[in-house]
Design a protein that fits this description.
This protein is of the alpha+beta class and 158 residues long. The protein has two domains: 85 residues, Winged helix-like DNA-binding domain superfamily/Winged helix DNA-binding domain (Arc Repressor Mutant, subunit A, Orthogonal Bundle), CATH 1.10.10; 47 residues. It has six helices and three strands, in the order ααβααββαα. A three-stranded antiparallel beta sheet has the order 1-3-2. A hairpin with a 3-residue loop joins strand 2 and strand 3. Helix 3 crosses helix 4. The relative contact order is 0.11.
């Protein structure tokens, strides 16, 4: 999910190369909500610079209202980690679905595996009707019935 945030950061023309690189590294660790728990040491290692340079970059990103910093403290004065939240707007739409759940592999299957796959799909279609996932008389019910007939034909031929 970090790709939309990285894209939004790259579109900022007011960032110099090194500060941009730091922002991108933080974006790589960001969640779908734009929150990234990242240590300064990790960022310094990833950006091939010292810890103080990372601190300066983060201050610049906070000043430009790209990031918000929150320090998580543990037992008094011990800092556990820094959490950075992206404040810039990014495209939050879900990625295009490729329907991977219903797509089939492009490689040919052996006959036994093919029959197993057809039987499994046939069982799933019958189960949908039995459990009431499709309502009798609806378009989905008709489509399910047609699929069952088609799969039964495949099994009797195979």
């Amino acid at each position: 999910m970090s790709l939309p945030i990285i894209t939004a950061v790259r579109q900022r023309r007011d960032l110099k190369e090194s500060v941009l690189h730091t922002a991108q590294e933080i974006a790589h660790k960001a969640s779908i909500y734009g929150v990234a728990p990242v240590s300064l040491r990790y960022l310094a290692q990833k950006c091939h610079c010292c810890k103080q340079t990372i601190i300066n970059h983060i201050e610049k990103l906070i000043e430009l209202k790209i990031l918000r910093k929150r320090v998580v403290w543990v037992k008094g004065n011990l800092c556990e980690t820094n959490r950075y939240t992206f404040r810039i707007a990014w495209d939050k739409r879900p990625a295009q679905m490729c329907h991977s759940q219903i797509s089939r592999p492009n490689l040919p299957l052996q006959e036994r595996e093919k029959n197993f796959s057809v039987r499994e799909e046939l069982d799933n279609q019958r189960k949908a009707i039995r459990l009431g996932f499709v309502t009798p008389g609806s378009e989905a019910w008709e489509a399910t019935q047609e699929t069952i007939v088609r799969l039964e034909r495949l099994l009797t031929r195979g």
